[in-house]
């Protein structure tokens, strides 16, 4: 079996960390590199977290670069109130022992995609789309190397999680998201409508912890309910790992090709993804939008793959 090359753009982030571990545990993938972006946490911390996660998985060889440190035009926002000041919730990892790749993140992506075989690379966007938009704007020719861009972001019927209308990743850099959805790339969107169906129940987390490996224990710690003012939160949704799960097992997901437009002007709905399910806008379909998931199947896949990491 020839491993499929993938690039991961990420802002770890609790669920980003789980997604990275799932990718590294899957022999179907050759992870070409990981590029950090400002989002859940500032970009320096995101890069350090990504490097520490690779080392936890026994893959210090994976190139990790720091990418864009701020959105294209809006003021930066973070989600440290959700992911913790360190970005990984209650999980504390040893500081990385190996250095970041010296290339700037966008330069790294452009170089890798220019050298890729046509339509061969799966590009996984787990955070704001700043790096992706910057790379496409700087070097439109890199689109030839992209087999599929899979984006965790946006919401339709599920509504927003950072504002009433917007999901965090798109809200954090809506201008970048608009560029990406207007780019003509083959895009699959994994919105909150899908990921909210995949919940980390205590039973599912316990099955992961029972694997007993350092990576599985770390994932269980990342997904365990947090306690605030004496009250535990409900089961966390497994957002970003759904991107990797979709690439591994697309039969676990259902969706259809529709048009997605991104609101960049209204202060009330900034970052809203307007999904034209009925085709009333007349705009051509530009994304495969997922809205149904086999949640048990995703967790079974996660448990099976984490067993590959010692």
Fold and architecture overview:
With 310 residues, the protein is of the alpha/beta class. Helices cover 33% and strands 19% of the residues. The chain contains twelve helices and eleven strands. It has a nine-stranded mixed β-sheet, with helices on both faces. It is globular, with a radius of gyration of 18 Å.
Question: Which properties best describe this structure?
Answer:
9-stranded mixed β-sheet; 310 residues
How would you characterize the largest beta sheet? 9 strands, mixed
| Order of secondary-structure elements | EHEHEHHEHEHHEHHHEEHEEEH
Q: Give the uncertain stretches in residue-range form.
A: 227-232
Q: Which structural class fits the helix and strand makeup?
A: alpha/beta
Shape: globular
Query: Looking across the biggest beta sheet, what order are the strands in?
Result: 3-2-1-4-5-6-11-9-10
- Gyration radius, rounded: 18 Å
Helix content: 25-40%
Distance between the termini: 22 Å
Number of strands: 11
Mean pLDDT: 95
Can you count the helices?
12
The share of residues in extended strands comes to 15-25%
Architecture blueprint of SSEs:
Elements: E1 4-10, H1 14-24, E2 29-36, H2 43-56, E3 64-66, H3 80-83, H4 105-114, E4 121-125, H5 130-138, E5 146-152, H6 168-172, H7 174-181, E6 187-190, H8 192-195, H9 202-209, H10 214-223, E7 227-228, E8 231-232, H11 241-248, E9 253-262, E10 273-276, E11 287-293, H12 295-306
Parallel strand pairs: 1-2, 1-4, 2-3, 4-5, 5-6, 6-11
Antiparallel strand pairs: 7-8, 9-10, 9-11
Helix pairs in contact: 1-2, 1-10, 1-11, 4-5, 5-7, 9-10
